[in-house]
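agent> fetching stored inputs for the FE2/S2 (inorganic) cluster docking request
agent> found them:
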Amino acid sequence: MARVLEGLEWVKVADISEIVPDMGLRVEIDEYPVAIWNIGGAFYATDDTCSHEEASLSEGDVWDGNIECPLHGSQFDPETGAAITLPAVLPIATFPIKIDGNDVYVGWRADR
Ligand code: FES
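agent> prediction call returned; pasting tokens
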């Protein structure tokens, strides 16, 4: 069930048991691909599509606490979305995430 708080709609995207540590889970919100992560016990929601080319980041790995693209190996900070290594230079988007019991929610703006 979604709730509206301060312009954000909290959209349930998964059960917490679906999120395997250090692996991405691809979900879609309004047909937009989002990757959900549990990295070192902290949860993150980011773009699933790499900022370099068309690759699904949830098919990549987590390396040293960062998201690693499966196609060319760029790494991204899961908290800020910053590109840390080449060839990507542009950041990926990050989204608010919260856990309520077993439910995982992403804060989403319908006008995105
Ligand atoms: S597509 Fe991700 S680094 Fe090239």
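agent> quick read of the result: Residues 3-108 form a domain with the Rieske Iron-sulfur Protein fold (CATH 2.102.10.10).
agent> awaiting further instructions
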